[in-house]
Design a protein that fits this description.
- It is built from 10 helices and 6 strands.
- α6 links the parallel β4 and β5.
- It is α/β, with parallel strands linked by helices and 269 residues long.
- α1 packs parallel to α3.
- The structure holds adenosine-5'-triphosphate.
- The site of adenosine-5'-triphosphate has 21 residues, from α3, α7 and α9.
- This is AAA+-type ATPase.
C-alpha cells in the first residue's frame, strides 16, 4: 500500500565550492562523516566508533541543507532526504513505519547519508505532547531503535538539521546517537562576498555592482537572504524596464532599503 514513494534517493550536485564561507562546518562534517565512511578500517584500528549522527543547528537559510548535500556529493555518498513535517503528514498513522523504511533504504544504498531536515518536528521532547503514546513519541522511539542499531547501522550516517535544538528530546542527542552538534551560523562579511560573487556570476550584472560593498551592507542577512536580494534586485530592474539588460547598483539600493532581517538575536548561538 503506502510504498517508498516519499523516500527518494537523491544524487545531489552541490559542491563545496558552491557554498560561501562555512569553512569550519565543512571541515567538521568531513571529519565526522566522510572520513569514517570512507576509512572504516582506520577507525577500527584506532579502536574508536565513528559518529552515528551529526546535528546541524542554527538560524534559517544559513546553508545547513546545502552543506549536507555538498558532503554527499564530495564524499560520493548516497543521499536520502526526509523533511520531518512531511514525513508526519504523509504517513499519518504510520510515521514510525516510514522511519523504518528510511533506514532500510539507507542501508541498501550505503554508504549513505540520511538527512533529516526539521528534526525537531520528529523528536520533540517527550511528555510535551501528552501520555507517551503520541505519533511523535512512537517516531522518536523508532529513531532511537534505528540509531541504537538493533540492526547495525553500517556505513549510514544521520545528518539532522534544526533551527530549534532546544526542543529536541535529549535522548536523541545522547552519546553514540546524534552526538555531534555543529552550529551553522549566518555568513560573515567574507562569506557574504563569496555568496554574492557566486550568485552574481550567474546573472546579467552592470559594472557598477560591487559585491564587496554589498557584502558590507548585508550584515545580519542569511545566505538565503543574500541570494534573494540578488533576485529581487533583478526583478526591480525588470520592473523599471521590461527590456532591462542587466541589474544595476541602484536596484540593490532600493531592495536593501526595505530589507527586514528574519534572523533575530535569540536564533544565534
Ligand atoms: P532552513 O533552516 O530554512 O532549512 P538551511 O540552513 O537548511 O535553512 P539552505 O536550504 O541550505 O539553508 O539554504 C537556502 C538557500 O540559501 C540555498 O539554496 C542557497 O541558495 C542559499 N545559501 C545559504 N547559505 C549559502 C552559502 N553559504 N553559500 C551559498 N548559498 C547559500
Amino acid at each position: 500500500p503506502s510504498t517508498m514513494r516519499e523516500v527518494a534517493l537523491e544524487i545531489p550536485t552541490v559542491r563545496w565550492s558552491d557554498i560561501g564561507g562555512q569553512h569550519a562546518t565543512k571541515l567538521l562534517l568531513r571529519e565526522s562523516v566522510e572520513w569514517p565512511l570512507r576509512h572504516p578500517e582506520a577507525f577500527e584500528r584506532m579502536g574508536i566508533r565513528p559518529p552515528k549522527g551529526v546535528l546541524l543547528y542554527g538560524p534559517p537559510g544559513c546553508s545547513k541543507t546545502l552543506t549536507a548535500k555538498a558532503l554527499a556529493t564530495e564524499a560520493g555518498l548516497n543521499f536520502i532526504a526526509v523533511r520531518g513535517p512531511e514525513l508526519l503528514s504523509k504517513w499519518v498513522g504510520e510515521s514510525e513505519k516510514a522511519v523504518r523504511e528510511v533506514f532500510r533504504k539507507a542501508r541498501a544504498a550505503a554508504p549513505a547519508i540520511v538527512f533529516f531536515d526539521e528534526i525537531d518536528s520528529l523528536a520533540p521532547a517527550r511528555g510535551s505532547s501528552g501520555d507517551g503514546t503520541s505519533v511523535a513519541d512512537r517516531v522518536l522511539s523508532q529513531l532511537l531503535t534505528e540509531l541504537d542499531g538493533i540492526e547495525p547501522l553500517v556505513s549510514v550516517t544521520v545528518v539532522a538539521a534544526t533551527n530549534r535544538p532546544d526542543v529536541i528530546d535529549p535522548a536523541l542527542l545522547r552519546p553514540d546517537r546524534i552526538d555531534r552538534l555543529i552550529y551553522v551560523g549566518p555568513p560573515d562579511e567574507p562569506a557574504r562576498a563569496e555568496i554574492l560573487r557566486l550568485q552574481l556570476a550567474r546573472m546579467a550584472v552592470a559594472a557598477d555592482v560591487d559585491a564587496a560593498a554589498l557584502a558590507r551592507r548585508t550584515d545580519g542577512h542569511s545566505g538565503a537572504e543574500v541570494v534573494a536580494l540578488c533576485q529581487e534586485a533583478a526583478m526591480e530592474a525588470l520592473a523599471d524596464h521590461p527590456d532591462a539588460q542587466h541589474v544595476e547598483m541602484r536596484h540593490f539600493d532600493r531592495c536593501l532599503a526595505r530589507f527586514r532581517p528574519r534572523i533575530t538575536a535569540e536564533m544565534l548561538q
